[in-house]
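Hey, quick one: can you model this chain's 3D structure?
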Amino acid sequence: MTPRLGLRENWAQFSLLVLVNGFVGAMVGLERSILPAIAEQEFLLAARTAILSFIVVFGIAKAATNYLAGRLSDRFGRKHVLIAGWILAAPVPFLLMWAPSWNWILAANALLGVSQGLTWSTTVIMKIDLVGPRQRGLAMGFNEFAGYVALALSTLATGYVAARYGLRPAPFQMGIGFVAIGLLLSAFLVRDTRDHVHLEAQAHSGDADAAPIPSQAEIFRLATYREPTLSSISQAGLVNNLNDGLAWGLFPLAFAAAGMSLAQIGALAALYPAVWGFGQLVTGGLSDRIGRKGLIVWGMWTQAIGIAVIAMSDRFAGFAGGAVLLGVGTAMVYPTLLAAIGDVAHPRWRASAVGVYRLWRDLGYAFGAVLAGVLADRFGIAVAIWVTAAITFGSGTVSALRMRESSGASRSP
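Sure thing. Here's the predicted structure for all 413 residues.
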C-alpha cells in the first residue's frame, strides 16, 4: 500500500497511536499524587531533596533515552522501539507495589524513565511522520492531549484509591493493565512509519537522498545552542519540565503543609495536567494557524503567573486557580514546541532533532527536582516556588528575543 501524508489519510493509525500514548501517560500518573506521601510516611524521608530524588532519577533516565530514541527509531524502526519501551515498563507497577526500600522506588523510576523515553518519543515521531507538514501542530495537540489527560485521570484515580485503601499496593495495580494493553496494541496493531518519512523527504528536497544528513554531534549543537530557534525551543522545554518536576514533587508537599487532605491533593495534582491535556486540543491546531512563537512566549509567561499564584495561596481555591493557569500556559507551549522542531528540522534528521530536544526538556525534571529540593530545604517551599516562577518568566523572555517564527502561518509580532 502506497503511503500518503495527512491526518485524514492516516486516521486509523493516528487514532491508534493516540490511544497508545494515553496508556503511556497513565503510567506516569500512577505516581503523581502519592509518591511524596509514600516517601514521608513509609520510608520516613524528611529532606525535600531526598524526597524529590525519584524525579531526578526519572528525569535523567528519560532524558538520556529520549536522546537515543530518535537514532534508534531511524536505525531499527519506530515500532520495534515502541515495543521495547513497553517491555521495560512491565516490572514498574510491581516494584512500586512491593518495594522494601526507597532504592527500589528509585530503580522503578529509572525503568519508568527509560520506558517513557522510548514509548512517548516514538509515538511523537510516528504522528509527525504520518501527518506531514500541514497539520503538525494539530497532531502534536492530539498526542499530548491523550498522554496528559490519561496522566490526569490516572493521578485522580490513584489519589482516590490511596485515600480509600491505603498508599500501597492498591493504587499501583492498575498499572499492570496499562502495560498489558499498551504492549498488545503496539505489537499487533501499530504499523511502522518509515515509508512516510521517505515520502516527505522526497517532497522536502526533491530527492530523499540528495540532502546530506548532519552528524549526531552537529544536530546536538544545532538544537542546543547554534541554531537560534532550535536552541530556544530546547531551553523552553527544559524550563517547562522544570515546572512539571516542581508540580510533581513539591506541590503535593506544599498542599499538605497547607492542610489539604489526600483526596484534595489528588484533585489538585490532577487538575493541572487535565487542563494541560484538554487545552492542547485547541493550542496544537491554533499554532498551525497563527504561528508558534507567540504561543510559546505567552505560554511560558502564563506558567510563571500560575506558579506565582500558587506561591501566594494557602487555600484550595487559590491552589486550584494557580494550577489552572499553569495548565493553560503549558498547553500553549507543549505541542507547539514539538511542532516547531518539525518545522525547522529536515525530515531525514528530524527524529534525531526531536531526541536532542527531548533530552534537554526532560533534564528539566532533574534540574527542577534538585533546585526545588535544595531551595526548599534551605529557605522553605515558598522560596523554591517563587524562584521557579522567576526562571519561567525569564525563559519566555529568551524565546521572545531569540526565536523566529517557524511555521507557514502569520508571523508573531
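One thing worth noting: The domain at 11-199+214-402 is CATH 1.20.1250.20 (Growth Hormone; Chain: A;).
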